[in-house]
Automatic annotation (TrEMBL):
Superkingdom field: Bacteria
Lineage: Bacteria, Bacillati, Actinomycetota, Actinomycetes, Micrococcales
Span of domain NmrA-like: 3-97
Secretion signal, residue range per the UniProt entry: none
InterPro entries from the UniProt entry: Ergot_Alk_Oxidoreductase (IPR051604), NAD(P)-bd_dom_sf (IPR036291), NmrA-like (IPR008030)
Protein name: NmrA-like domain-containing protein
One Pfam match: NmrA
Amino acid sequence: MTTVLVTGATGTIGRHFAQHLLAMGASVRCLTRDRNRADLPSGVEIAEGDLRDPGSLGPACEGVDAAHLITFAGDDYAPIEDGEAIVSSLAQAGATRVTLLVGDSEESPLERAAKRSDLEWTALIPVEFMANMLDWAAGARLGRVEEGFADVPSTVVHESDVASVAAHVLLRGGEHEQALWITGPEALTVRERVRIIAEATGNPLTLIALSEAEVQRRWREYGYSEDDISYMTGVKTEPPLASTVPTDTVHRVTGRAPHTFSAWAEEHVREFMPASRD
């Protein structure tokens, strides 16, 4: 049985990832900084540790065959710096394959270390998680969504589909030295996504379209650096091809079609419903 270490286990795709791995017959070990706060499926092994402290990873890495690595951590999503030590710990433990969840245009230290190593590596690049739309939930319960770049399309992808691609790559291989753009089945604007959520809930929603300057001001208030703001603005104003044209990655790697945004909205109806209708 293949043993897989899942880092970022309490993040956007972690629980989905563990479920896919378990369903495919793997032994799953999830890394978390605090086991008491980890809401993970039954059947997984929980190991405490922190990727930002490679010295804490020894027990987590012991006996693993493969690992899923996030390349950033913390509330500020800062790149994980000591990539060499992490890769070395995995290699010494006997791991042979890793997936790397990539969230920035610049190659991270962990990516560089994996690419220089003897590990089989695959970079996973989700265009935009459907789960990001949960940021709209509080406003949607009041009948409105405030968002910028309202008419810019994005091939938003279900977090479970990203997890499924990662699980298939780690257990079946075949994507060594590849960077996989992962998308949903269609490119949807903010305006279209708001309409789909309104249809799923039966709750009329008003879109308040923010200007580029208003969006950037909010990002500054959230604590993003000017470099981050420049990058995120560029993604919206000059989106990569995969943001506007869906890829076949999910179907090609997993053998099934990716989830639609309508399906995701139906799954999350309760989060968007007004309090009086809960």
